[in-house]
Amino acid sequence: MRFARIAVGLLLALVGLLVAVLAGVAAFWLVGPDNTVDTGEQPLSSAGLAVMTAPDLIDRHGPTLHVTATGAEPVFVGVGQDIDVASYLGGSQYTRIVSYDLPSRIDTQEMKGRPAALTAPGELDWWTLKAAGEGRQSITWPIADGRYDVVVMNADGSPRVDAKVTFGVEVDGLFGTCLMVFGGGLVLLVAGLVLMFAGRRPAPRIPLPITVPVVAPAMPYTPPAPKQPSQVRRTGALAIVLLLGATGCAAVPVRNVSQQVTTKPATTVADGQAVIDKYTEIRGRVSRTNDAELARTIEAGPRLEQTRAGSYIGRKLGTVEDKSGSDSYTDVEIGAPEFPAYPMRFVSTAKLSKDPARGQLGVWERQNAGSPWLLTHAVFPRLEENVPPMEGLRTPTRTDMAKLPLLPQTMSGNLAKYLSEGPASKQAAQFMGSADVTQFLARRAKDAREQPKKEYISAVNDLFRPTGQPTTFIAANGEALVFVNLTERFLQFVEPGNYANWTGGAVSAYSKNVKYYQTLHQDYLHEVALVIPPTGKIRILAIRTQVVGGGGS
């Protein structure tokens, strides 16, 4: 019985001593009252553009991540979704953190690519959290479920990053848990000692014979090698994991369940509004100065082509589009579909401050995470037009397309025939035009009637053609919101023995007082927004027209 009590006591004492030592190390050295385990200041450098964590490295959520970076140059530190970070750094040279051994060992991998500077990271709007500037820059991020990356860069996006970085993980209640387990270890130690020595009677004294000791040669004492700090810290880190698993006093980090979810909304309402505000300010300068190159920083595609044509005409004819600048948008609504990768698009609707009878309907596109949002399509429908709701707007799937009575590509061709031939065309029955379209067709019909009455014009031909691919979105009500582009050539045939020339109007910016003996032509680019409902006629919301060329033969 006595042997069993001593054995149990010894076991309890050893377990208590081990638990108390590990918990003490964890509580008073690794963690501290702030509940945070950190790596200490680690030198991180890269010959490339950034140092970033691999997307599967942050695979748990719940704790709070603290990142602090300092460098000789202004430094940037940020957290972003992997979709954005991968696009931003795609093709660039950078250093990836592929593994870490809590708390201080970090393994990296060099990723090959271009060393050219990128857009300054602080200017981009998709970061979940960011800080940039001189001296110490810090972020504190409650780790969210999903694929996220931590990025450290030079604040100006230049290569050769050299920074000292501290990573810290804060777990609520961790310090208290360590103290509790430390106290439990002491209790076990005391209980084991009590079992070992309580009730023990002293043994009787027995005279011992006197002996002459034989003195052995003294051996040199070699103390045991001390543990390296990293080994001790690693042991303490392991203790923390065991403590978290053994108690419920601290929140154990939960493994991410959406690690494979690879889509995200194109933008947020706040970021979309900021994009539109910036566009309005720069567009006003373009309108006042006819600066087509400035327009390239805010527009692309057919919208930029129309703006450049308008600026060219303004410079050639000495006119200004709008001396007071661009219109301002109010009551902005954002439709932001989910995308798995770049490019991404979103749609905006708004009211116009200068024209209360109309609204704005535009498509914004970003080619990659390092490029700006650019307006690619813009029309101005009357407010009475039934624009689909922005909430729940999404990109079309095959199932969505199969439910439409007409595919957008086919619809574009039919629209071109309808506008070319007018209400008498076979395709006219498919469309329900807005008041603007009705007025547009009436003007074209009048030109077709009036121009041949001139003695030097024998006939006219008006031909519309679709250009590019339609841009399609599906609204929550199942309707397809489609943006298409059409070219138009209004061709006039000159009577034999006569000549004709352009003398005024926008087309004279391309050809003025030049005699043509066979034909005259005007070229237009049209932006059109339409709605394809699951049933019923296709609604033409608005059409925006710009002269883009002219001349003759």
What descriptive keywords fit this protein?
553 residues, alpha+beta, 6-stranded mixed β-sheet, 5-stranded antiparallel β-sheet, 10 helices, 24 strands, 29% helix
Q: Which band does the percent of strand residues land in?
A: 25-35%
Question: In this structure, how is the largest beta sheet organized?
Answer: 6 strands, mixed
| Count of beta strands | 24
**Order of strands in the sheet with most strands:** 8-7-3-11-6-9
Which structural class matches the secondary elements? alpha+beta
Shape: elongated
Give the uncertain stretches in residue-range form: 212-249
Bin the helical content: 25-40%
Mean pLDDT across residues: 86
Q: Report Rg.
A: 37 Å
Count of DSSP-assigned helices:
10
Distance between the termini: 119 Å
Please outline what is shown here.
With 553 residues, this protein is α+β, with helices and mostly antiparallel strands.
How are the SSEs placed, and which strands pair?
Elements lengths: L1 H30 L4 E3 L3 E5 L3 E4 L6 E2 L2 E8 L3 E7 H8 L4 E8 L3 E7 L17 E5 L3 E6 L5 E7 L6 E10 L3 H24 L31 H18 L7 E2 L8 E2 L3 H21 L2 H4 L5 H17 L11 E7 L2 E2 L4 E9 L6 E8 L7 E6 L18 H6 L4 H14 L9 E2 L2 H16 L6 E18 L5 E15 L24 E14 L5 E15 L1
Parallel strand pairs: 3-7, 20-24
Antiparallel strand pairs: 1-12, 2-12, 3-11, 4-13, 5-10, 5-12, 6-9, 6-11, 7-8, 14-16, 15-17, 17-18, 18-19, 21-22, 22-23, 23-24
Helix pairs in contact: 1-3, 1-4
